[in-house]
Structure formats: structure tokens, C-alpha cells
Specification:
single chain, mainly alpha, 15 helices, 50% helix, Q_salvage, Queuosine 5'-phosphate N-glycosylase/hydrolase, hydrolase, EC 3.2.2.-, hydrolase activity
Length: 339
């Protein structure tokens, strides 16, 4: 079987053939201008990683790297079947929803003395043990418990075969982001976020790329973060950032697709429309980044180091913060292990 196109080239290919999702040049320029105004803020730096997720351990802690591996391995499918029935996890007086329930549950387990970041433990934990770790504080459980258990135990076994930690597993890639993504995808089946679109094998690699970006964020905070080719990472194509891109006018859905999403139709992983939403989001952020770089060069006479991962790290919390303003734009619903 032919190797899939890398995520960036996949995004370009999808945009060139898309039937229901379109990149809007004027909106791309507006978002780039918005980011240009923020170019010197901490929101658009690697140090924003810890700020964006206060539940993560200190980047200098021994648990930090294995924590991101555990969380990123189970980082998928948090949307509720009904908005009024969401999984909730309360930690230190704050109640969390969505992806943050996972972060809160893992950090809560660590505080309870459960060695949830140790591969020797999570490689062989039972479904029931993981269910207790991920327990909700209401009657709505976290979705896809059995799938989370399968991918986590699989990931733990792989780490044990490669030195027993995420750091030892990823170290053969050196400081090469491309090699890191390849190492993850080659060894961890649950990270192989691929599809066939218009007869072409493509890749989106949301979780593999975010795992590399999270690794970089920790190493950057430790002042060990030089990763010269980090710009090979694209945005992390999920269901929340596309909604933000539509809200900001950089992405447009056809009337037919918008109606489908408003009707709550479930899109299967690999469905043409699902691939178009994710692929066009990737290329949209690439165009935003390119325009931002041009603005910085033309106006400031400098090169710009704001990459697609940083733009994603900004847009995801932006979507959460502005969820009421963009509630009229439906997210797409796909139950899968890839995002």
C-alpha cells in the first residue's frame, strides 16, 4: 500500500478537491491580522502550554512527559450525546468538562497515589481500574472507556519495549519533529489517523502531532526545547478548531453540510465530509500562518517563529472561551479514537 501524504500535503490535496468545505481568503487575512496584533503576547509562545492547561504537572517534574503520553493517548471523543448530559470531573473545587475531564481525572489519580503515569502499571491495568480513574462526578461517564483502555494498555506495552518511558521511546528521533511523528505512527497503531480521499491515501495525525508538540512544550519550558523543524507540524484537526475557523470567517461550509451538521447527523471516521472538514482546516491554518509570516516580515522586518502548533494552541482555548458566540455553528460529530 502506498504511503499516505503527510498532513500538510493532505490538507492541500483535500482543499483542491473539496465539495463542501472551503477556505476563505478574506477570512484568512483577518485571522492573520488578529494574530499579528497578538504576536508578542504569551498566548502565542510555547510557554503558553502550561498556562493553557493548569492541570498538567510542572514541566520540570519527573511525571510531565509520561503524563502527556497518557493524556494524548486517550485524547479523543469527549463530545456529549446531549448537551445537558456531560461527563464532569471536579478537581480541587473546579468542575471540568470535555477534554479537561481527562486531564483532571489523570491528575486526580496521581494525587490519590495511583501510578497512572507509570507504563508498568497502565500497560496492564484492567478496564475497571481505568473506569475508576476516569470516573465522572455525575451519571454521565466519559465516552469510549473500552477503547481508551485498549489504546492506553497498548501504548504502555510499547513504552516498556522501548526503555519504559516516553522519553526513552522518543529519544531515537533526536530533536527531529518529523522523525518523532514517524516513530509514534509506526509503533502505536492508535495514532494512525489516516483515510482514503478521492482515491488518495492521506494522513491527518492529530494525536501524533499534538504529542510531539506537547513534548516540545515541556522541553521548551525546561530550556531544552530546540527542535529546528517543528514547523512540519500542522494544526491538530479535531472538531473544535474547525468551528472556530468557521466563526472567524476563514473556513466556510456549504449550506448542505451546515444543514447536515445542524440535524445532528453522525459522520463516520473517513466519511468524505468529515475528511473535508479536517483537511481544509489544516490547509486553512497553513494559509493563516503564511500570511502572518508575511505581515511580520513586511511590517517588522523580522522573521516569524509562530508555527501552526502555536496557532492551534491559541485557537482551541479561543473556541472554548467564545463557545456561546459560536453556538450557532455546529461541530461535526464523529465517534473515533483519532480525535
Amino acid at each position: 500500500m502506498e504511503a499516505p501524504l503527510p498532513p500538510r500535503e493532505s490538507g492541500r490535496f483535500v482543499v483542491e478537491h473539496s465539495q463542501d468545505v472551503f477556505v476563505e481568503e478574506e477570512g484568512v487575512r483577518r485571522v492573520a491580522e488578529m494574530l499579528y496584533a497578538l504576536r508578542k503576547s504569551e498566548d502565542l509562545t510555547a510557554s503558553g502550554w502550561k498556562k493553557a492547561n493548569p492541570l498538567a504537572p510542572s514541566p520540570t517534574s519527573d511525571h510531565a512527559l509520561n503524563w502527556v503520553f497518557v493524556v494524548d493517548t486517550m485524547n479523543f471523543s469527549f463530545w456529549p450525546e446531549r448537551e445537558d448530559q456531560q461527563c464532569e470531573v471536579t478537581y480541587r473545587g473546579t468542575t471540568y468538562y470535555g477534554y479537561m475531564t481527562l486531564c483532571a481525572a489523570i491528575t486526580r489519580a496521581m494525587e490519590e497515589g495511583i501510578p497512572i503515569t507509570e507504563p508498568s502499571y497502565f500497560s496492564q491495568m484492567s478496564v475497571e481500574e481505568l473506569g475508576r480513574v476516569l470516573r465522572s462526578d455525575n451519571n454521565t461517564p466519559m465516552p469510549m472507556l473500552e477503547e481508551r483502555h485498549r489504546v492506553l494498555t497498548e501504548g504502555g506495552r510499547v513504552l516498556l519495549q522501548h526503555g519504559g518511558s516516553f522519553r526513552s521511546f522518543i529519544s531515537p528521533a533526536g530533536r527531529d519533529a518529523q522523525k518523532m511523528v514517524e516513530l509514534i505512527v509506526d509503533n502505536l497503531p492508535s495514532y494512525r489517523d489516516e483515510a482514503t480521499y478521492k482515491g488518495k491515501r492521506i494522513s491527518l495525525y492529530k494525536r501524533a502531532q499534538i504529542l510531539v508538540a506537547d513534548f516540545w512544550g515541556i522541553m521548551e519550558a525546561r530550556v531544552e526545547g530546540d527542535m529546528p523543524n517543528l514547523d512540519i507540524l500542522t494544526m491538530f484537526a479535531d472538531y473544535r478548531v474547525p468551528q472556530a475557523l468557521v466563526h472567524l470567517g476563514a473556513l466556510r461550509y456549504s449550506d448542505t453540510l451546515m444543514e447536515t451538521l445542524r440535524n445532528g447527523e453522525l459522520l463516520s471516521s473517513g466519511d468524505r465530509r468529515e475528511v473535508e472538514i479536517r483537511g481544509c482546516s489544516i490547509w486553512c491554518v497553513e494559509k493563516i500562518k503564511a500570511h502572518l509570516w508575511s505581515l511580520v516580515e513586511d511590517r517588522d522586518g523580522q522573521s516569524c517563529n509562530i508555527n501552526s502548533a502555536i496557532i492551534d494552541f491559541y485557537l482551541w482555548p479561543y473556541a472554548k472561551q467564545h463557545h456561546k458566540e459560536m453556538a450557532h455553528i455546529p461541530i461535526h460529530h464523529t465517534r473515533c479514537i483519532y480525535y
